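Re: that chain you flagged

S.,

Sorry for the slow reply, it's been a week of failed gels. I finally had a moment to sit down with the sequence you sent. For the record, here it is as I used it:
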Amino acid sequence: MSILIVAGFDPSGGAGIVADVKVCKELNINPKVVISSIIPQNNLRVYNNYPLSEENIKEQLKSVFEEFDIKYVKIGVISEECSKILLKYIKNYDLKIILDPVLYSSTNYKLIEISDSYLNLIKNSFLITPNNGEYNILKKYLNDDFDGYILKTGIDDVLIKNNKILKVFKGKKIDREVHGTGCVYSTAITSFLSLGYDLELAIKEAKRLTLSSIVYAEKTKFGYNSNPKYINRKKVKYNLLEAIEYLKKINFKLIPEVGSNIAECLFLPEGYKDVCTLTGRIIKNKKENSFYVVGEFEFGINSHITRLLLTANKLFPEIRACMNIKYDDKIINIIEEHFNVSYFDRKKEPKDGSTMVWGVKEALKDKKRPIDIIYDTGDIGKEPMIRVFGRDSLEVVKKVEKIGGLAGI
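Prediction finished late last night. Pasting the structure tokens below so you have them in one place:
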């Protein structure tokens, strides 16, 4: 069963059809699309909104529906003529409509007129996803005859049906204005519904994806464009297995006496159950000048590296992976020119509490951007260590490769 996206085309790629398709690609879904209008815009302004002709939209829809079975339709910016055409399709097909009422752009350009046909489209929707401002405008039109769901979006999202709050989805405030997050969110919900998720789970996973699109947003001249990433447990394990293969390829040698470990977490992990790491360690094979991998990758191991990663992630959500490697003065002298490096002194650690939690907080307390490396020079009975951080485990091992190359190890 295919999904259909009906929305405007944004040449900047931050919102509209382009953002919608990026979401679908991230979720391995092949959407069908109908372009309703051309909207020249960027993060600074909307220049205009050029709705496509009635004939053009009819031909696009006909070309899709005569070949494909459509169940879910996500709707973004549309004209009154497009609303009327879509209402006819709703009558002829059993469609579930997820409507993102983009009344105004983030730069306050009016994009949709609230016409009778548009209100009828809303009333025939399974779910609408207004932000707080859009909800306040639309609620006076939503009478008791509206039987669909409303997801009022903000930092926390509120799911409403028949004027009753069903669930609140807690979010995280990220101080960054990103172009296209509303498009990303509604398309992600549509996509998860098409994959068989129930509504609440679809919203939960879509919110996780949307927050990732903010954290990993593409910096532009005037702001940020959404950059959706979906990181589930399968993807995390795949990354870690690929990272081990990469370490074999580069003949990894920077193994401390206690062994190395590598960890990766889900986006915005709630605790150690959302972190995957080895049950054992990466240890030296002195005879063959290589290494053994002891154990399997599993979620839920409460270890040093897990606590270290969770602490760093709370401060910088971009950081989702970490690996410990051998300390060497030669490495420290070289890497500070190539990486963002910090340090903590284990001799100063408090007697109570976790060394790793304290150490990471100490190393990151004055940092304004994500760290690459945290090291310490050890203490009595404690081996000095270098810890490498990254957006995923593949990025981490590539940094490890660069460190080894710079140090000639």
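What I noticed first: The chain has a mean pLDDT of 92.

Talk soon,
D.
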